[in-house]
Amino acid sequence: MEKIIKKNQIFPRPADVVSRLGASSRGFTLIELIVVLVIVGIFTAIAIPGYLEYTRRSDASMAQQEMQKIAEQLERHKSKNFTYRGFNPNFLYGESSAMSSVTLPRGATGSLVKYTITIQDGDDPTKLLTAMGSGTPPRPSVKGRKWVMKAETNDTKNYNFLMSSTGVRCKNKAKELLEYKNSVTDEANCGSVATGSEGW
Fold first, then answer.
1. Which region among 106-115, 122-131, 164-173 has the lowest average model confidence (pLDDT)?
2. What is the DSSP letter of 91?
3. In degrees rounded to 5, what are phi and psi of residue 191?
4. Could you name the domain of life of the organism this protein comes from (predicted)?
5. What whole-number distance in Å separates Cα of residue 177 and Cα of residue 192?
6. 112 with 131: CB under 8 angstroms?
7. C-alpha dihedral over 118, 119, 121, 124, to 10 degrees?
8. Dihedral angle at the C-alpha atoms of 126, 131, 134, 137, nearest 10 degrees?
9. Domain spans of the chain?
10. Quick one: pLDDT at residue 97?
11. Per-residue pLDDT at 107
């Protein structure tokens, strides 16, 4: 009989915590909550910089792909017209008006723009390939024998890109170093390894 009574006795569940007054209570202690918050904070501190770096690499890859697509169309334009002069990328993007630059991602405005791509004359990088001079009727003011393409970002932690018809492909985080000047060798216009220049 004694065995049967012991079996039927009510014992508090292991998950319950008995307070000093004898009543059972459930929940987390303050220490447990703080430990959980610290662990979540550590995971966040590790994950966010990794995610930001991933998005920067993704944006840079998008700019490189777009530059290569435009470069291919520049070569097609030259094979038909025997010059790069007058190239306008508007047909690539379904635009009817002339485009002086291409923004990425397409359709973004303001702070959502990640890259701005401009295509300039290789003989005079201060002019776009579509630049028109004075006179009646106005004639193109560029020679159109070479081209230079720059993709610039406002994110100081991401790369700016330079690409030219002479084979230059470089990137640098210092925007002011990515200049194409005719009087200097192409590689010197990307800065040096010491200033963060890399090929791509």
1. 122-131
2. G
3. 85, -170
4. Bacteria
5. 9
6. no
7. 10
8. 170
9. 20-199
10. 87
11. 86
Distance CA 136, CA 25 (A): 91
Name the DSSP letter for residue 147.
E
- Each residue of 93-113: pLDDT tens digit? 988 888 889 999 988 889 899
As given in the structure block, the two tokens for residue 8 are 């039927």
Q: DSSP per residue over 165-198, as a string?
A: TTS-EEEES-GGG----TTS-GGGGG--GGGT-E
3-state secondary structure labels for all residues of 126-138 = CCECCCECCCCCC
Instruction: From 113, 119, 118, 120, select the one nearest 59 (Cα to Cα).
Output: 113
Give the chain's radius of gyration (CA, Å). Answer: 31
Query: Distance (Å, rounded) from C-alpha 151 to C-alpha 57?
Result: 14
Task: Say if CB 168 and CB 122 are below 8 A apart.
Answer: no
